Amino acid sequence: MCLSNDTVRQIVTDALREKIREKPDAKYWSVSQNDNYDYCKCPRCAAADLRYGSPAGTLLGFVNKIAASFPDKTISTLAYQYTRQAPRGIKPAKNVSVCLCSIECNRGESIEDGCADFARDVRAWSALTNHLMIWDYVVQFRSYVSPFPNWHTLQPNLQFFRQHGVNMVFEQGSGRDRSEFSDMRAYLLAKLMWNPQANMDSILTDFGDGYYGPARPAIWAYIHRLTEAVLNGDRQLTIYNIPQNEPFLDSAGMDVLNRELGQLLRTHRDDSVFINRMMGAYTPVLFARMERSKTDSTQLVAMLKWPTAQLDRNLRAFTEGCARAGIRNLHEGGYAPGQYRLDYLAYIENMRLADGVANGKRPTDHPGLHHLCQRRPERAHQQAHRRNRLPLQLAGVPGHRPPGHCDGRGERAGFNDTGFLSAGSAVVGLLSRESGV
Questions:
Q1: Residues 6 or more apart whose Cβ sits within 8 Å of residue 407
Q2: Among 122, 168, 191, 404, which lies 20 to 30 A Cα-Cα from 323?
Q3: pLDDT per residue as tens digits for the range 397-418
Q4: Coil, helix or strand at residue 76
């Protein structure tokens, strides 16, 4: 959308006026960019971006003119990604509120210590307006149930925002979905947003005693161990990651909670409320272990030897724990625990195929690969991706040759010598439509 085009501005103004007519009592209205980097770069917009030192200036000029038509309303706009840097030579109008977003920041340290460019932007925007809101992010969005020890950053960040005149904060968590310690994290943030100087340890102890009861010491020990691992390591914690890439997830730390909670679950087996709450704390440990097993060659090779029924029992323990804890989705795009179980079983079966191929079995002997050879491989990959499933995991066990590839007609299969790709959320193989190898 061209922000320097008067006709575009009039279209947006008319559309907003119609929306306001439908809800005349609403005070705040958003006129904001889309969630991407596809902004207008025509000569006039590019010149404005250069003049203001940031695309935020061009956006702000557009929004200010619209806001002038609605003096009794507050028009909110985002300072997000390419518009995050404050402009020069222009200020938000009196009835314009700027919402500054911290999506890029490292969560292993406070913003002031670990995200210097965003701290700079907070200071710069606070010098331009008294109507500054922060959109902050406080959970692991790629893996809702993955351990995410950002506790030590929550209070310093809110204190920093308050110090620089921020008068509104949106702490984005998992919304209606549950995530790792979501109840406790929401309680703490609600208290700190009322009073950023409150005693955080007292808040957490009060919640822990009332919610976790006898399990609080074990949960505290686990959280402190993970936090110390982050602080003593590379201090990196991002909101889009997976357990395989998190060095703070050492087995010893997870063993603490596994051992202590296991005993408590057995002791309080008849207390359904307690059990449900404990499963909310316990399922992230199960999830992290299952995910890290995929890329640990020793654990993966051992898992390939398990009977499928044994593996499925472990996976069902996870899905049942999710059900008791009220965990419906594993990341922000959806992805139900039950589907995760099925995909994990398929993943291991494909790993067994890879191991079988390496030991002399024909790839077409495997019904899973035969099924894939009956369809267009690239279409199968696209369909799996659209359903938020893992990609087609035709990959190899470390040290072995990867499995076969299809010719697209279901007739031939051969070996790929290109190895396999590690693609963040999964290990994926390369499918080819070439005939004959």
A1: 373, 413, 432, 433, 434, 435, 436
A2: 191
A3: 344 444 444 434 444 444 333 3
A4: strand
- What tokens appear for 79 in the block? 């300072």
What is the residue whose two structure tokens read 């790792």? 180
Could you tell me which residues come within 8 angstroms of residue 436 by beta carbon, excluding any fewer than 6 positions away? 407, 412, 414
- Can you list the domains of the chain with their CATH numbers? 6-232 (3.20.20), 353-437 (no CATH)
In angstroms, rounded to a whole number, what is the distance separating the alpha carbons of residues 290 and 318? 9
The DSSP secondary structure of 139-199, one letter per residue, reads S-SS-TTS----HHHHHHHHHHHHHTT--EEEEE--TTS--TTHHHHHHHHHHHHH-TTS-
Q: Is 147 exposed, middle or buried (0-12, 13-18, 19+ CB in 10 A)?
A: buried
Tokens of 36: 């991407």
Measured CA to CA, the distance from residue 195 to residue 387 in angstroms comes to: 42
SS3 97: strand
Quick check: 222 and 256 in contact, CB under 8 A?
Answer: yes
Segment 15-33 shows an average pLDDT of 96
Strands of 54-128, DSSP E: 74-79, 96-101
Query: With a threshold of 0.90, does the pTM exceed it?
Result: no
For residue 258, give the nearest of 339, 304, 321, 211 by alpha carbon: 321
